[in-house]
Amino acid sequence: MEYNFTRIEKKWQKYWEENKTFKVTEDPAFPKEKRIYVLDMFPYPSGSGLHVGHPEGYTATDIVCRYKRMRGFNVLHPMGWDAFGLPAEQYAIQTGTHPSVTTNHNCDTFRRQIKSLGLSYDWDREINTTDPGYYKWTQWIFIRLYNTWFDEKLQKGRHIDELEIPQEIKVKGKREVREYRDKKRLAYYDNAQVWWCNQCKIVCANEEILNDGSHEKCGSKEVERRNLKQWMLRIPLYAERLLEGLDDLTEWPESVKEMQRNWIGRSTGADVDFEIDGMEEVLKVFTTRPDTLFGATYMVIAPEHELVSKLVTDEYKKAVKDYVKAASLKSDLDRTDLAKEKTGIFTGRYAVNPVNGEKIPVWVADYVLTGYGTGAIMAVPAHDTRDFEYAKKFNIPIRPIMDPEGADEKTRRQVLAGDACWTEDGIYINSADPSRGLDINGLNKEAGISKIIGWLEEKGIGEAKVNYKLRDWLVSRQRYWGEPFPVIHWEDGEISVLDDYELPLKLPELEKYQPGESGESPLANAGNWLKVKDKNGRTGRRETNTMPQWAGSCWYYLRFIDPQNDREPFSKEKEKYWMPVDLYIGGAEHAVLHLLYSRFWHKVLYDLGIVSTDEPYTKLYNQGMILAYAYETKSGSKIPSDEVEERDGRFFSRVTGEELNQIVAKMSKTLKNVVNPDDVVRNYGADSLRLYEMFMGPLEATKPWTESGVKGVFGFLSRVHKFFSERKNITEEPEDKDTLKILHQTIKKVQGDIEGLRFNTGIAKMMEFTNHCIRKGRVSRDSAEKFIICLSPFAPHLAEELWELHGHETTLAFEPFPQYDKQYLVEDTYEYPVSFNGKLRFKLEFPLDMPDSEIENAVLGHESARKWIEGKQVKKVIVVRGKIVNVVVI
RNA sequence: GCCGAAGUGGCGGAACUGGUAGACGCGCUGGACUCAAAAUCCAGUGGUGGCAACACUGUGUGGGUUCGAGUCCCACCUUCGGUACCA
Question: Which strand (E) or helix (H) includes residue A303?
Answer without folding.
Answer: none
